[in-house]
Sequence to fold (310 residues):
Amino acid sequence: MLRKVFLLFLIYFALSSIKTNATAEETSVVQGEWNPSSAGPVTAWTAPLCGKKKFVVQPFFFYNATRGYFDSSGHYESLPGSDWKNQFQEQLFVQLGLTDRFEIDGQVVYQQNCVKIDGERASSTGFGDSYLFLRGCALEEKGWLPHVTALLQLKMPTGKYQKANPNKLGTDLMGTTTGGGSWDPGFGLNLTKHLKPFIFHADFSYSYPQLVRVDGAKTIYGQYVNYDFGVEYFLPKGFNLMVEINFLSQGDMRQDGDKIPSSDIKSFILSPGVGWSDDKIQILLAYQRVMTGINTDANDSVIFTFVYTF
Fold:
């Protein structure tokens, strides 16, 4: 099924590139005069592509502090006593414009995990899982219609996911919360709409992890869905305010053919932020809070990111 979707995706955008000679400037005219620059939301995609022969670099710097945990029933439990858990995470997201309607993107993650449990401390550093994306413009913004971009994605298991060192208290496991060790293909849609002085963003993605052996057990993590919604409000002198909400829902996992009850994951995250931009660089400082969830850490995060276009 994935091969068929991927083939149709390539054929559609190859034909689109042949049929159109639209430049980035022409696209801007179609959307209207008002098209301010910004770093965009933290997690939600911005649907417009970077443009032909453009190379965009966007690093993210996260500090995540865990205040507690949402259990399998969704009940919140704070960390006991003097225990603590935090994480420093550096992400590098890059975009390469192949045509005005087609781009390839990638993301790598490096992180430092630190915990204190029952008076014992441990920390580890390493690469997390990586991502590869193919995006193509399906519809340019016109009138009341939003900008629509199709997405194919692949999560690659570049982070450590098994053979945990017991002395590291779990800090040496670097895979994603949705399932370390698995290759996760997926697809989705990105939407963006300008309504001066606001820009609205929404996206959806669906991923289905593949079979992986974790510490000897044949494991299939649950399929999962992400929804992101963001809005930016633009102020004078290049400033803007941003607020974003993110949803994740993942089904139960299976090990050696048996379904593991209450292993599903859900989360709802709220993130406000403030940004500043000019024609060459865009920056954003944001705060994220996990408001509720199931089988997920209750994190508070501070994020800084900037965008630079070559």
Q: What stands out?
A: Helices lie at 2-19, 24-31.
